[in-house]
């Protein structure tokens, strides 16, 4: 019979940490902690496989599972000596959800389950502490009412009906804190709560503990498909099929008095990665009190004073956990009358700063290997390290000028400046129209996730370093200042008051997530530490600790990866940036981008408007020196690294104006009749330019264009060679579907190369290859490879042509396609392995069979996407080429791919990805004024 329930407790457990698939993250680690002898209250985990059974069984627990749960409940009773629902010695439990991936705050936990009028009396008799018992009871009825009976308000700004009752009661009594409520007051709250439940639902609160238990469990499974959970899963790509497990666990009480308490901690600082114990706790409190922001918790170091013995034990457990899990852990604990219990542990979420520091530190502490260190850093996280920081001078001036509003907790490092919005709906809407926003909330909850994602930064008035806002911000890489208690936020009026100042929705505010400062107004940002060292070259690397850690990770990545990383760059400054980021060559230099530059569009248009070959050649002669200069600049910066240059690709009409006014101006400039210009533009019009007169088709019809480009490339190469710079240009012919297209262009290119070498009296190596970007090219790759020395997969076009989807027109439906899971991901972002990927695989196989040394790369957008890079590694490409600011990400992704998968075996023999010879890497002086468009928002994915 299949096992659905796993017991844990008292030094032994049926599960362990490797069983997250069925026990969920929480259950697996509870079992693990119990197994290694940590003080975990006993309990059992109902497997996540039951989640699907529950939905199949009309959202009811199947009978067989109930039976197994009953047996485990009996076992728990025997282990604890308590009896569920007993009038003398009642067993109380918590019911906790827990999926395979941690979904913070997504599902609600119910504590103190098993209380009713009978067990309450028993517990009072047993503990002699009526206040504690009624405190527990009112919490239980409240949680059960909210979670199981659905009284929790759907709208975030609406107050929880139970909280309203508590507020009324406190008001009546003239007290402020929950702690001021006496046993009698709490007892009365319980009856008011029950009355509210009866009124809202028409039913009495369930007295029978078993009914409570089934209700709670079914609510946990039922919550797997609530809107919040669905939204969260979508954001983090968690499949619905995983389901959640349910944990039922003996209650321990942090609310038993002042020798009891509850807390949360990270074994290291989750924001910076420093090796300091980092956490918060509250005495005489239960469950979520610490993170809910209702009372301000104390820092963990303070526990040394409250209870030295417990603190020492917690420190011991901190070390045990780090040694055992060999990672930074996030823990939840409760102290019941001076005894410590562990209630949860999981690998702690961290900022990118912390991720790299912890990984590097743990390697030097010999806890993990370099390979493991790499496996722990998500390549995309590195973006965070490239994010801007405030311009220090401007920030100092702002503070001097009295604009410092308040200081909160530095929960998510980085600099953010934006306009205040007070709720997530506004945050999303404003961001949608291009505004930078700071989501400002009293506290955040799972309903705010989308708004948090849309915001530049998050500011909260309540909550600690482990509050929801802090956790989620760190995970998303958002700047966050939390628990800024001086802020008074009025959602109704859309205003924020702090000290004597009032800020309204839309006002600018700046957050320094590294220091916790909140500053009025806009403050400009400047490049991150890594960029200051590598790109700006304004900071000495020895004084840049973040850079040094980053560099170490990059070194390790380079040690293990076999895939080379190149960049897509059209200009020397872009190329220099990419080299600074570690690019080993240029995988795609688009020549047409050069035509748009200053002084070049004129001759280009002249060339297009030319009626005769002679006229065209005259125009091309003007372009030649300009292009040559461009290439010379690139060769110089690349200093011997390979450079792939693509001949003209876009259709010609893209270079001509389409407005009458501009056409008239152009006509005047060129000394042509307006009608001539208009007619030419019209004649170049295409119904579907994507499949029109473009790519090599242009060069075949107008060979003089290809010839001019080839000449510019080779003359620049010759000049470089004379200057002592190594060059080996790779000329790439785009959009080839038939080998004869390539033959046509290749002859032209080779003829030009020979001519230039003769004229200039130098020799240089060069290569001619093609882009594989239409299916026919991939299918006939064996024929094409007889001519091409290299292939570069142009996966943007290859995706368009394979799927028959125009990227420019896909907006209307592709998102829905992804939502409906027709495609798991946007195929233009993440390579469609089963479709496009199969064509690539075929082209690799056929190509290498025809030409064993064939060099293979990718230059589409996918070249910067970690998952696609992994695929490129798998099919044995030599390199991936991506935009300059994604080069570090690609290096790490390539290393992780190599560590996960050996290169694929193709055509019966192993294909080495180390075909590309290592070339001398000279340090090149990058121009200071680097293009920073992408750095402002480096490939931020929403
Ligand atoms: P989440 O997944 O949101 O973290 P948990 O299941 O961890 O939810 O429960 C929330 C809080 O409830 C925990 O931090 C813990 O303090 C408290 N809690 C859960 N189970 C117990 C228990 N058996 N005894 C005491 N406190 C518990
Ligand atoms: Mg928890
Ligand atoms: Mg293309």
Describe this entry's structure for a reader.
With 942 residues, this protein is α/β, with parallel strands linked by helices. Helix content is 45%, strand content 17%. It is elongated, with a radius of gyration of 33 Å. Mean pLDDT is 90; it is low at 903-942. Bound molecules: adenosine-5'-diphosphate (ADP) and magnesium ion (2 copies).
Number of strands: 36
- The Rg value, from CA coordinates, equals 33 Å
The major sheet is characterized as: 8 strands, mixed
Give the overall pLDDT as a whole number: 90
Quaternary form: single chain
- Shape descriptor: elongated
SS-based structural class?
alpha/beta
How helix-rich are the residues, as a percent range? 40-55%
Strand ordering within the main sheet:
15-25-24-17-18-19-20-16
Tally of separate helices: 38
CA-CA gap between termini? 45 Å
Summarize the structure.
The chain contains 38 helices and 36 strands.
Can you give keywords for this protein?
elongated; binds adenosine-5'-diphosphate; 942 residues; eight-stranded parallel beta barrel; alpha/beta
Write the layout of secondary structure elements.
Elements: E1 5-9, E2 12-13, H1 20-35, E3 43-46, H2 49-56, H3 63-80, E4 83-84, E5 90-91, E6 93-99, E7 110-113, H4 117-127, H5 130-147, H6 161-173, H7 183-201, H8 209-223, H9 227-236, E8 244-250, E9 261-266, E10 278-283, H10 289-292, E11 298-299, H11 303-306, H12 308-325, E12 329-336, E13 339-347, H13 352-364, H14 370-375, H15 382-386, E14 389-390, H16 392-400, E15 404-407, E16 409-412, E17 415-421, H17 424-432, E18 437-441, H18 449-454, E19 457-460, H19 468-476, E20 479-482, E21 488-490, E22 495-498, E23 501-504, E24 508-512, E25 517-520, E26 525-526, H20 529-536, H21 545-560, E27 564-568, H22 572-580, E28 586-590, H23 591-595, H24 601-609, H25 613-638, E29 643-646, H26 660-670, H27 674-684, H28 696-701, H29 703-722, E30 730-733, H30 739-760, E31 767-772, H31 775-779, H32 781-785, E32 790-793, H33 795-803, H34 811-819, H35 836-850, E33 855-858, H36 866-874, E34 879-882, H37 887-900, E35 905-906, E36 909-910, H38 933-936
Parallel strand pairs: 4-5, 17-18, 18-19, 19-20, 27-28, 27-34, 28-29, 29-30, 30-31, 31-32, 32-33, 33-34
Antiparallel strand pairs: 1-2, 1-3, 3-8, 6-7, 6-8, 9-10, 9-12, 10-11, 12-13, 14-26, 15-25, 16-20, 17-24, 21-22, 22-23, 24-25, 35-36
Bound molecules: adenosine-5'-diphosphate and magnesium ion (2 copies).
One magnesium ion (MG) binds next to loops.
